[in-house]
Design brief:
This protein is of the alpha/beta class. The protein has 26 helices and 20 strands. Helix 11 runs parallel beside helix 12. The longest helix has 33 residues. The relative contact order is 0.09. Bound molecules: adenosine-5'-diphosphate and magnesium ion.
Length: 697
């Protein structure tokens, strides 16, 4: 049967070389199998029609039978539009926004009976359907509940519109009856009430009822996610078995002393839990690769420090890498201060450290005197050699610079353990899937007593009140960030806005009473650092900046974050920016300034920000709005090649499928039982065919 399914598509009855070529080019359908897995994107009930007179805006999608009575063209060039007047026995409606307008005009005749499908909305007192699907009424058509496939203009022209695709599926499904192998073991099928594979593949294309289509979809999504997760788990297991890691079997004096005597507060439950997870990793003899997620201020750094002390207590060295010199310096200063009573040698290595000062650091690392090194990526250079590096912590890694991992691994005979910390939460289901080779820990609890940041969404007409509010905050001795968007496509314009904003602020907040800093990407790094430092030290009260401040500086005295043109930022970026305030004891505020008219998605982003401070909740909304491709970078999601499941919409199912895959591995670790034969064959194909993108990520 497998061979049959691999038959080139042109050999299917009703296809042939010409259509076959088009199917390959336009939809990537090369074989029978590809067609079988070309799932419909929705269904319609072809026996139910609406009447124009009854439209009331309540129906989400409508299907109407009638005729086009005339076409009108308006506008010129790119704004040229085609409108059709469509009539049934009860009224008229406009059809607008055609894809492939010329084709529509050519192939549809005035006064011919057709059916249209789409979303009806009211515009200027008249109903219209934009981007309607239009098809001729053919008495031979199957009635009732039907699958709808997406097609393209070229395929349409060749007779392969949605209906055409339906038609070529008929002989394929006919031949497949009784031939489709089950791949999911029976116990899992029973547990999750999955219909058989054959039934699902038939029903997804030719369901009799909506419920049948839904159940078929569920079964196929489950299968897809189940095999994806199983593959990830197995890959991870393989890497794990191959990898060797240092064992830190002692708690050690450094940790004990610091933990019992020098932390002025109780660790949160989440911090304790994560620390336990890390300690467990240190004891396995395998290499740790752990992602630590937690909102800004949730206390990740402390967990990192305690982990480093575990390394030190076992006679290893540890290093922490921050993305910028300023951040590294802040880490260095706070770690040095905290470790003061312990007499543990800590050093800082960043680009600006002079040559003559580097030498002793290099020596100290080599002879093991320096236990903890804080720095930027500079510390990955080959000249930096350790005596015995056991743990590397990477802080605030937005995108995974995993290219750096191999460089770290060279720092010792056995690669040091790696802990990656990020304040940009990724929904669990995505983390599970995209960081397949990482273990994920989450700090989902804030230290007690934090005041949550108050967020407001304002429009231009509140500007003068906003300035008043800024003055009040500054009078109380606080500091203010004002952030402007900057993207490549509109760089010049964005810089102009930033400079205009800076001038306006400088006029309204004049020297000498007020000092205003500006930082942007065009400045030299030293100048940026200089200005940033003035703000950190409190010499300036207002920081006007592009998103360069996004990454983690700590200015506890800053209590007000104003984000200009906030509608142009993504949700996670907004959340990240907001995290720059609320770090001290004072009530902090975040003001989102937007244009008066913004899109629905933008409004949803603003509302989400106003509603919640929870990074995980925000990342879920972000996922819904943008889809996993955008969230993770398209390259990665492209590699997943999911045919029916959707990581954004089917998040719950991802976890269920993963649990089922885990359970299978517990019961049959090397997948050799008879009942798992199907699973084994799919898996071995997957392991052969896909590059290990968990590593490439
Ligand atoms: P993150 O790195 O996650 O942004 P930090 O580790 O910098 O957060 O912690 C933010 C602040 O909270 C620091 O001043 C830290 O000392 C403090 N902190 C950390 N853990 C706790 C705790 N359990 N109770 C009280 N304060 C804490
Ligand atoms: Mg931090």
């Amino acid at each position: 049967m497998n061979n049959f399914l691999m038959t080139p598509i042109e050999y299917l009855s009703g296809v042939g070389p010409m259509k076959g070529e088009l199917l390959k080019k336009e939809l990537g359908i090369y074989s029978f199998k590809d067609l079988l897995e070309y799932y419909p994107f929705r269904y319609v009930n072809r026996s139910e029609f609406h009447e124009i007179a009854q439209l009331d805006g309540q129906q989400t999608q409508v299907q109407i039978k009638g005729k086009i009575t005339r076409f009108r063209e308006s506008g010129v060039g790119r704004s040229k539009r085609l409108t059709a007047t469509f009539q049934d026995d009860t009224g008229t409606i406009d059809l607008v926004g055609f894809k492939g307008a010329s084709w529509i005009k050519k192939s549809l005749k005035i006064n011919e009976m057709v059916q249209v499908y789409g979303k009806a909305s009211m515009f200027n007192g008249k109903w219209n359907i934009s981007h309607p699907e239009i098809s001729k009424i053919n008495p031979d058509d199957r009635k009732g509940f039907q699958a709808v496939y997406s097609s393209t203009e070229r395929l349409n022209t060749a007779g392969l519109n949605s209906k055409g695709i339906q038609k070529i599926l008929v002989p394929l499904l006919e031949q497949l009856k009784g031939q489709i192998e089950e791949l999911i073991p029976e116990n899992i099928r029973i547990d999750h009430r999955l219909m058989s594979r054959e039934k699902a593949l038939m029903s997804i294309h030719q369901p009799k009822t909506e419920e049948e289509a839904r159940n078929a979809g569920f079964r196929l999504k489950f299968e897809e996610l189940f095999f994806l997760q199983l593959e990830l788990l197995v890959r991870k297991k393989i890497t794990m078995q191959k990898s060797k890691g240092f064992i830190f079997d002692k708690v050690g004096e450094a940790f004990n002393d610091f933990y019992s005597n020098h932390i002025p507060f109780e660790l949160t439950g989440a911090q304790k839990r994560v620390l336990k997870e890390i300690r467990k990793d240190f004891s396995t003899g395998h290499h740790m690769n752990r992602l630590l997620q937690g909102d800004v201020g949730s206390g990740k750094t402390l967990v990192a420090l305690l982990s480093m002390l575990l390394a030190v207590g076992n006679d290893f060295q540890a290093a922490i890498i921050a993305p910028t010199a300023i951040l590294a310096t802040q880490h260095y200063e706070s770690i040095k201060e905290m470790l003061e009573p312990l007499s543990i040698e800590v050093e800082l290595l960043i680009g600006s450290v002079k040559k003559k000062d580097r030498k002793p650091i290099h020596e100290g690392l080599k002879d093991g005197r320096i236990k903890i090194l804080v720095g930027t990526h500079a510390l990955l250079e080959d000249v930096v050699q350790f005596k015995n590096l056991g743990l590397v912590v990477i802080d605030e890694q937005h995108r995974f610079g995993v290219a750096q991992r191999p460089r770290m691994w060279k720092k010792n005979v056995i690669p040091p353990h790696v802990l990656i910390m990020t304040a940009t939460p990724i929904p669990r289901t995505l983390a599970m899937t995209f960081y397949g080779d990482l273990d994920v820990s989450v700090i989902d609890e804030m230290p007690p007593g934090r005041k949550s940041i108050k967020t407001m969404h304002k429009y231009e007409d509140s500007r003068s009140r906003l300035f008043g509010f800024m003055r009040d905050e500054i009078d109380k001795g606080r500091q203010v960030y004002i952030v402007y968007p900057l993207i490549q496509e509109s760089e010049t314009l964005d810089y102009n806005n930033l400079m205009d904003g800076f001038e306006a602020i400088s006029r309204s907040f004049p020297m000498p009473k007020y000092q205003v800093s500006i930082v942007n990407g065009k400045m030299k790094p030293e100048d940026k650092d200089f200005e940033m430092n003035r703000f950190v030290k409190g010499e300036t009260q207002i920081m006007v900046a592009t998103t360069v401040i996004e990454v983690g500086v700590n200015v506890p005295n800053a209590s007000l974050m104003i984000i200009e043109s906030a509608e142009r930022f993504g949700l996670s970026q907004l959340h990240q920016l907001r995290g720059r305030v609320g770090r001290g004891g004072e009530q902090s505020y975040c003001i989102l300034m937007t244009a008066d008219k913004i899109s629905r998605d933008s409004l949803k982003r603003m509302k989400t920000m106003v509603r919640t401070n929870d990074g995980f909740e925000i990342s879920e909304v972000d996922l819904q709005l943008r889809g996993p491709g955008d969230l993770m970078g398209t390259q990665q999601s492209g590699d997943l090649n999911l045919k029916i499941a959707n990581l954004a919409k089917d998040g719950g199912l991802v976890s269920i499928a993963r649990d089922a895959a885990k359970e299978l591995l517990v019961n049959d670790p090397s997948i050799e039982k008879e009942e798992n034969k199907g699973v084994r064959s799919v898996l071995s194909e997957l392991l052969k065919s896909r590059p290990n993108w968990g590593r490439i990520a």
